[in-house]
Amino acid sequence: MQREMSKIMSSATILAGGRFSGLTPLLAPRSVAVLGASSDPTRISGRPIAYMLAQGFQGGLYPINPNRTEVQGLKAYPTIADLPETPDVAIVAVPAEVAAPAVVDLAKRGVKAVVMFTAGFAEMDAAGAAAQAKMVADARAYGMRILGPNCLGVFDARRAYYATFSSSFDSGWPVLGRIGIASQSGAYGTHLYTLARNRGIGASLCVMTGNEGDVTVGECIGWLAENPEVDVIAVYAEGIREAPGLIAALQTAKAARKPIVMQKVGRSELGGKAAKSHTASIAGDDAVTEAVMAEFGVMRARNSEEMLDIAHTATRKIYPARNTLGVITVSGGAGVLISDVAESVGLAMPEMPPDAQETLRGLVPFCAPRNPVDATAQVSNDVTLVKTFTESMVRDGGYRSVLGFFSMTASSRRWPAIREQLNAVKAEYPDRLYVLSVIVPPERRQELEADGWVVHEDPTRAVVAIDAMGRYGAAFAAPPALPAPVVPAVALPPAAPTEAEAKRLLAEAGIASAPEAACSTADAAVIAAGRIGFPVVMKILSPDILHKSEIGGVLLDVADSGAVLEGYRVLMERAKQAAPHARIEGVLVAKQLKGGVECILGIHRDPVFGPIAMFGLGGIFVEILHDVVFRRCPFGADVAEQMIRSIKGAPLLLGARGRHPADVKALAEMLARLSAFAVAAGPRLASIDLNPVFAMPEGHGAFAVDAVIEVDA
Amino acid sequence: MQREMSKIMSSATILAGGRFSGLTPLLAPRSVAVLGASSDPTRISGRPIAYMLAQGFQGGLYPINPNRTEVQGLKAYPTIADLPETPDVAIVAVPAEVAAPAVVDLAKRGVKAVVMFTAGFAEMDAAGAAAQAKMVADARAYGMRILGPNCLGVFDARRAYYATFSSSFDSGWPVLGRIGIASQSGAYGTHLYTLARNRGIGASLCVMTGNEGDVTVGECIGWLAENPEVDVIAVYAEGIREAPGLIAALQTAKAARKPIVMQKVGRSELGGKAAKSHTASIAGDDAVTEAVMAEFGVMRARNSEEMLDIAHTATRKIYPARNTLGVITVSGGAGVLISDVAESVGLAMPEMPPDAQETLRGLVPFCAPRNPVDATAQVSNDVTLVKTFTESMVRDGGYRSVLGFFSMTASSRRWPAIREQLNAVKAEYPDRLYVLSVIVPPERRQELEADGWVVHEDPTRAVVAIDAMGRYGAAFAAPPALPAPVVPAVALPPAAPTEAEAKRLLAEAGIASAPEAACSTADAAVIAAGRIGFPVVMKILSPDILHKSEIGGVLLDVADSGAVLEGYRVLMERAKQAAPHARIEGVLVAKQLKGGVECILGIHRDPVFGPIAMFGLGGIFVEILHDVVFRRCPFGADVAEQMIRSIKGAPLLLGARGRHPADVKALAEMLARLSAFAVAAGPRLASIDLNPVFAMPEGHGAFAVDAVIEVDA
Q1: Which of B305, B614, B581 is nearest to B460 (CA)?
Q2: Model pTM score
Q3: C-beta atoms of B277 and A186 within 8 A
């Protein structure tokens, strides 16, 4: 009877019709079978049963072992066929050569999912990769999903579901809570959950995807986003293998206002190599993953502590879209440190209104009422000052987030009275984010958390976490982005087009180049130059020479007809020397643009996320400073303008220090159109380089001066 | 008798003849008097006595209180005059109006130092500042030093000396150890020591300087550097008020191979303001303080955790000058994260030698032997593999630092055996830095620390601390810098010199300008231009117009004699319009340099540290990207070249991506000469701007094109 009830609960309350509900049998099953179940609770195939028995899993639990009638006190079944019901999920820890056929048996029986601990697949060698691919294909043919292989599994302490052989429970069971973890690495997933547990943070659901032969970390994020028992999602990833699942998951989480904090490793080249050898991961370009995270308001944590700080703070579910920080303290000192950190992360700490400052100064003459607000040791004489000061901050200062810095004061005899005053303000204004930086023993910390405060020992970590809440709020509150521009169908030629062809293709999508003409004779070039106006630029025109400047195939400042004639001769000569077999179609004569800001617009096809747009300023900005921004295609002009404004060199375009502002609107429109063009061009498009693009002074447009399109055969 | 012994110990073993030994009576006194001592051990003037009694201070301890014959069990004396001996130090907590005369009485009695808790001085208002200045002058007349006023005092747990009213001891006494803390803020000093104590880190000596009316944080650092009981110095500063003491202290610490880690707040403008209001500090320019820290190899910590991580790791006293990191683990995953952090901080993680990799692969076929080195779960079957693998890393890989990432493994049953294997390697190669990233309970942590491992829970924090040890090692091992160039005496004119005068002054110091001539008539300009060679630059010449380009007073690309004539007319006209009362001396005609890289060299006088040199690339690099480097003057060409190479845009000078390298040697020589010039010019020099300087292609020198020298009246 109890078991029946539990089944109803499991199946009914969770994830009825979401996009990711197909993972429910895997991640929240009603019944579990364990293939090759061991009687020894310390062995890999014994641990899941031991854990589930110890914690009281309420669903069906079926050991399968032909050599035993009983395993750890449960009836054992000789084969899959003998099971009294079809389990939702089966745990497989048998050796690789037995695992693959077992998957087929399980699928035939109608089992919906497998958690596969077994190693020796794609992480080992090419043969292992092939075996893994076949096994997954077999399972998919029956609609069965596989977590792993070579994974540490999944656990959900709330359901006492432990399809994992992690030994981390030797040192304690998870703290129940509303943070869900999805990790590609098993070692790091349990590392993180253990850190959370030791800090008393409730992260009790953890999925570890291992080789990702089938189920990806993206899908797991999506399932957590749809899970009503999860409010905050913490992710550890080494390389994203599949885009649609991840994108849908990030959309789902954003729509559900569930913050995601992600530790994405493999940022360094060194890191990239290690990732490859360790998880057989095709490490996607880190910058691309970062762009996707930014697109959906995912916060990137620098380390596990920051990840837990942010995840834990997010469980309060207060995400101020226009975040401001007010700091209250009863001793100075840390105020400077807090201001430093706030400025470095970009969190606003506006001053208190002048009249409110005046009022507070009337109460305590030597207080610091600006922000940080220091009520001074005067509160020893009158503790109600803490409430008066904090209340004024929330009411008059209007701060969306309040940080109380009390350090060791929170361990003193004065603290209970101060806490009472602080709680009174909190009760009056419950919509703010309340955080404390205090040094207290764990039990006092838990009291304060129960009061509704988020407790961080270190004030700088507190500021970083508070700032993250504002960024979530801004992402959740952002209006829907503009649609990408509509561009006509793109018919890519079979091979890389010439510059002129490339520009013609781009022009059809509304991407303007500098006025120019393709000329197959020197006389035609003279006539074209006269029409366009001197000075002009001359470039060699050949489908076989893509990087013209490298062979001296570009002439600048060509000033008159004589120079055009001479230039034609020089270009033909150079082309012949550098590339004797190249087809030469003549020269391109173009207007030389002056007074614009040099930019680079580019597209490259990421193997996982498809066409990615890049924007940067020309020359050293891209080459030496790597001051560029990326975005998944396509996007509208609003996003394009955000990209342009986000680079460090943006002031150069926006009119810093007396410069004339460039035509950023035209530049943004061009970038958006390029993103739409890249999608319209289809998967044969390998890359586009518009380098340079001149952003002319405001109102005068933006023009591509060179265009290179690379096409896959 | 016991007291006598203690006196001998106190006075003899510490700080005999160092530069900072004058602070010994203050920071390690043989005897202490407490003015206005209270019988109530919870009152400010009662606490020091209560603490010293509780912890067993071995020197003389003399309460002074005219109203009592006994205080907390000690004989009390009515006045200073009644004391049986002259105490080294007196603690003063009486109100400000009584404190100042008391200081004179104490000085007359021969007391060598005062710890003054009393507030109401410079931190309050101008009158308070004046009272503070007078009090300090009175004390100095007698050779007496004052810590504070408005300070939280000093404690040294090793000597049971507690001249502080901090309530932080309510929650426990310091852990004895070899980290000394010097802090301008009392609140933050005790915050830091409390964090250290809670982590079991020995930081038992802490000086807090408050208003710094007399004793500065710099002097305290120096005293800690000379103290044989201190190995590592942790500093918290808001603004440096005095340079010579700090510089001498940093030199002393470096010579003694004692690492300093410093948290310097006030980095942000916001922070700067808060610092001012809170400690009446004249916040020195943060960039200048950072340059001074870099000069002496001081590490800057971003927060208290990083400060303690670094300080604690440094207590092992292993500072590898050419640091390399080898990582050993028995499960993958964190390797990528560790590689990411190592790359971001610049810590080398070279691969294991190929033959060593081969050998390890022979032992465990699927191990990852590169670095990070993963011995895999195979160690469950043969734990000696841990020793074999780690030994190979230390012996064959030659890593100077070894990080073991064992996370939860360190809480498992396998751990004692693994620990034994690791310790065996450690014993064999004791000269390396050994660090563990593990999740363990405090008692296990203490065991590992006793074994000689540094334990960090978080691997990223471990990497940052390991990297810091290498930076200390490099600073300690650095050869002495070259002497600054010798320049002739500089005779600054009474007011700001013209550009031509400025260039002449600089030329005497060997700082070259572009060929040029000052011309007081248009005809002279034509002749000069012909001699210099076209094109030339023309600039207005006036002692009253410093920033010429702002009034259109600079003409570029002047191509021939006609243009010179016309240019002369235009410049005179513009000067007359923009500055009708300016004295106009004519124009400067100069060679227009082409093909150089535009740089800015500057000097500005910092109120604390004197002349500071700045180097950056021209234009947007300085204005928008703030890509500049600072250094205290003077310095030699080696330091100048390090500065030039340290900026982000340096590749532009060094010949990145096919560029011709610039004459960095000549540029460095110019920068070093400028630094020597700035010192030779004396305190009336306010600033110098050489903007632009053209660094010509290698072998062709560097030339200042404009020079502005500002002089204080």
Answers
A1: B305
A2: 0.88
A3: no
